Structure formats: structure tokens, C-alpha cells
Amino acid sequence: MNNNNNNCSYFALLYEDSDATFTLTMPAPSSVVKQLWETTLDHNFNTLNVASVFRHSGLHLIVGCEDGTIRIYNLPLQQTKNSIKKFAFCLQLKSQLDSKGGPIQMMAVHDVTRFSSNDLLVADSHGTLTVFCNEQILHRQRLSDSSINCLQVEQDASGKITIVASDGDGCLLATHPHKELWKIRLPDIMTEKSLRSKPVVTALLCVQTVAPDGKQINYILASDSYSNVHVLQQGKLVMSIPTPSRVNAMCCGRFKMSAAGDSDMGATAAGAGSKLQVALATDTGVIYIMEEFQLCETEYCAVGSPVTQLCRLSARELGNADVLLAAGHYNALAIYQDGKLKVKHQTSDWICSVIAADMDNDNHVAVVVGCYDRTISALRINI
């Protein structure tokens, strides 16, 4: 086994079952990144998640595959023996769900049916949204004639849920099972007088901010292929913000501290904090910070290649700026804090998904990384 990691050396044990080859890695000490485990699936996939879903207890690895199937795995369990923690090297397939559609492009986990457990929403390349409730297809809805490329779930202060998606034809639409709420075509809200090609949505993000009176306000951010970020509320355009280049990914957090080290600066997707900060990853490899819908003049960092994935690790409890993980057109996971590169963790291929989760319930968040070569690895990041 070849582990291209600048931070650790590994001894690997291989375990094979009918669906995955699992590698138990025992990393040498590292100051920043430790690889916990790695597995290679037999199926190509585009997206993954780590979440509690349906009536299953605990977290599970959820993989959206190109054959239209969603495969759900039990996570490797951390075991303690003689005060030494290690992971049992077994990635077991718990269930697989047939979406009856095309390659899975996007997934979201949320309790949209209010049946007391999280549901699974999947969007495919045929433009179909499928809602699974307790492993059964509850609803299938054809949203578009083209592929769904972004999917988000918005929940307002009253608990109202809206499923927001975009397609390859430049349409933004909001729906709830059995009911379409609104639909917007990008050309109808763009100020460009002449469009050289069809504009498309490149990233979606649902955010919450808090007004001075304490009221929660929800917005939807949609970036387009003409280097704009559109701010929407309930299907209406609030403003459009030009960006230096095309934005491919967005992430909420507290990435820049105030001069006084204000611990309240920045907001999360859950609306915590007083000021909304959003990291914008661009096609040029530069990441910018947008604060309260104002683009900061200085660059947060420059990765050097197009960035397509962002993930945040909270450092709020320590009073520090959040850690930002960036992946894209390069074989590495770049780890930044306060705009400074901490380390680049080498991967076997370009990364298609990055998810943060407390997998073993020890109050330490791990990062699960999925690559286009079907490799999935779990990392512990210490900053």
C-alpha cells in the first residue's frame, strides 16, 4: 500500500469483504494530521456523508454511488485495550438503497417528514430528487431535465423546511415533498447585458444570521459561473455580489478574528455568533472571506489550484479562528487557520467529498475524505 503522506508513516493491515477493501492504518505520531483508517470501495461514488439516518443508532457512512445506489456502512469502531485506542478494521455494509434513478450527485440528511428520525435526500444526474424515509422511497420528484448539481436544506426559526436545489440549466428551485415552492432562472436575475453562454449555479449555501433585535433571518447564497454570489430570501433576490473569480464552494464559520479577538465574530450555518462570515473558494485557487455580505479586500489564502470543496472545523471553544479545509484539483487536503497554511495532507487522488463528524463519540471531530479513485479515509486533525 502506498500512503502519500508527508506527516506520517504507516503500517497497514488489509481486510477484504464483498464490497470494500479496508485498511487499518497505525500512524506514527504527527503534530497535525493522523490517519485513522482507510478503505477502497468497489463502486465509483460522487458524494458521501457521515450522519445519523433513519432509525439506525449512531452515525453511519453514507455513500452516493454512480450506479444510482446509496450504500450505508457501519463505521469502524474505536476500541480501548490497555489504555490504547485503535479502530476495529471492519467496514460493514449495513444496507443499500436503490434510488431507481441515475448516478447520485448530491445528498442531504434532514428530518423533512417529521417522523422522528432523519430522512435521506438524494439528487441524481437525471434531475430527480428522491426522499427516503426509514429506508423506503417516500417521494420522487422530477425537478429538471438536466443534472442536479447542488442541494441544500433550509430550516427557519419556526421549523419550516425548504429543499433548495439547482440544475445544469441555470435554474434554482425550492420544493417540499409533493409541492414546488418557487423557481428562479439565473438569466432573469443577472445584470449582465449579454451572456456568452448559459449561466449555471456553481455552489449553494443556506445561512442564518441574527438581526439586532435577536430575530433569526435565513438567506440562500447561490454563486454562478459569471462570478457572482446571489443572496436570496424566500425566492426573491436581495442582492448580487460580484466576486474576483468563479466561486466553486462556500462554507460558514469564524475564519477571521477581529483585532480584539472577538469570540463572537462569525456565524455558523446554525446561526450562532453575531456576524456572518462565509469562505468563498474560487476557480483560481484563491479563498476569500465575505463578512456580513461584504467581500473582504484581502485574500484569505491562495491554494494555487482550483478549489471545489470546503469544510470547517470549529475552534470556538478555544477562542481561535476556525480551521478551514480546502480540496480541489490537486491530490491533497489543504489545512488553513487564520489564512495560514498549516499542512497539506497528501491523498491518492482528487477529493470529491470532505465531511467532519465525531465518529466515535469522544468529543473529538474527525474528517472523512472521499477521493475519485474510490478511496475513503478518516483523519484526526490536531491544531
TrEMBL record:
This chain's source organism reads Priapulus caudatus (Priapulid worm)
Protein name as catalogued: Uncharacterized protein LOC106808427 isoform X1
